[in-house]
Amino acid sequence: MNKPKPLISAILNLNLHPKPLFSNPIHLMALTQTRITHSDPPQNDAEDDVLCSNPEQTQEEQPSSHSLDETPSFFGSTGKYLTGVSRFERAWAHWTKLGRPKLIVAPMVDNSELPFRMLCRKYGAEAAYTPMLHSRIFNENPKYRSEEFTTCKEDRPLFVQFCANDPDILLEAARRVESHCDYVDINLGCPQRIARRGYYGAFLMDNLPLVKSLVEKLALNLNVPVSCKIRVFPKLEDTLKYAKMLEDAGCSLLAVHGRTRDEKDGKKFRADWNAIKAVKNELRIPVLANGNIRHMDDVRNCLEETGADGVLSAETLLENPALFAGFRTSNWVVDNEKDSIDGKLDQADLVVQYLKLCEKYPVPWRMIRSHVHKMLGDWFRVQPQVREELNAQSRLTFEFLYGLVDQLRELGVRVPLHQKDDASATGNLAEVIGI
């Protein structure tokens, strides 16, 4: 067995080693008293909307439903933490109770689902967000609830994120999940056209009284704290006023994406860490930084420069779910960087692990298809005919996907993930993260 390199040794001391996985997923079926019967995927394009599998569960295996009265409250009676300085103390006490996680999976529509979260947790993620859930549809559609939100015992700490523009609808949705998470999060940062059409996400930045009412509604009525994820305004002073308003409304944790809502292309626009630092200095609640996190050097630099209490990564994790365990893709390894070594892990290995998790925790096939494309993108560029074979497959099966990985390997394709063999970097990371 190879001796761990210095950086990996530090990461292992951070409890970032692979963790045992809990095998019984909790669906919101238990809350809605609905179940989806087992069936083979249909033989058409609609197949991508059904679960990858749906093993039957016995009555004993079904998670019990939780009433609001049974929900444990770390904050005490509903809304009490809003009064006085104690609300800041309670916000920090809750964050401390969770272990003050610093390495966090960002919310990604259709991409931060349970199997992917569990894969990232295996490789060092200390907390994770669900995909953005649409609050109105979540309330109205039992199938949407049971397919789009699943969790398990080991899936903690967990942020459940909703988009909304109606406080009452948001509260109804939040109450359905509060016993299964550590924060209910409000998406105030989605910059996509669908958010503009639906009037949610970053487009609520034009209606701050509505935003305030969303936060207050949850903060006054939930037994778990409310968090928010935002983008910055073009002017720093507007961003600071916005962040302070959210804190005053009852937000207990704020994640700041350091780009404006018009800066959609993360490769073209670098996130503004100075703006995140200014928000951190302004507020009295935990603040997380989002943007420009491609490898562990970025984690260290971001924590140092912003003073944030943790970092979120999104797009890079899709390509490399092992990012938080010190692995990086070849495009982040400088050609003459002598301290980078083959990490004895590649994206095909991660795809196989992800597929096994999907067999354990069923999700819609469209999510699986997306992850396979993201993780094997570098490999497909070498053997594009294999990618075309995947694209032509209207009905996915696990047998086909495992075979796809075998086919790439038989063609001699291997793009290794790298580790940075640098003792000084290990020391700096340990100092920043606090080991």
From TrEMBL:
Molecular function GO labels: flavin adenine dinucleotide binding; tRNA dihydrouridine synthase activity
Named cofactor requirement(s): FMN
Q: What Enzyme Commission number(s) does the record list for this chain? A: 1.3.1.88
The transmembrane segments are none
Its recorded reaction(s) are: 5,6-dihydrouridine(16) in tRNA + NAD(+) = uridine(16) in tRNA + NADH + H(+); 5,6-dihydrouridine(16) in tRNA + NADP(+) = uridine(16) in tRNA + NADPH + H(+); 5,6-dihydrouridine(17) in tRNA + NADP(+) = uridine(17) in tRNA + NADPH + H(+); 5,6-dihydrouridine(17) in tRNA + NAD(+) = uridine(17) in tRNA + NADH + H(+)
Would you say which domain of life the source belongs to?
Answer: Eukaryota
Question: What InterPro entries does its record include?
Answer: Aldolase_TIM, DUS-like_FMN-bd, tRNA_hU_synthase_CS
Q: Which UniProt keywords apply?
A: Flavoprotein, FMN, NAD, NADP, Oxidoreductase, tRNA processing
- Record-stated family: Belongs to the Dus family. Dus1 subfamily.
**Any idea what this protein is called?**
tRNA-dihydrouridine(16/17) synthase [NAD(P)(+)]
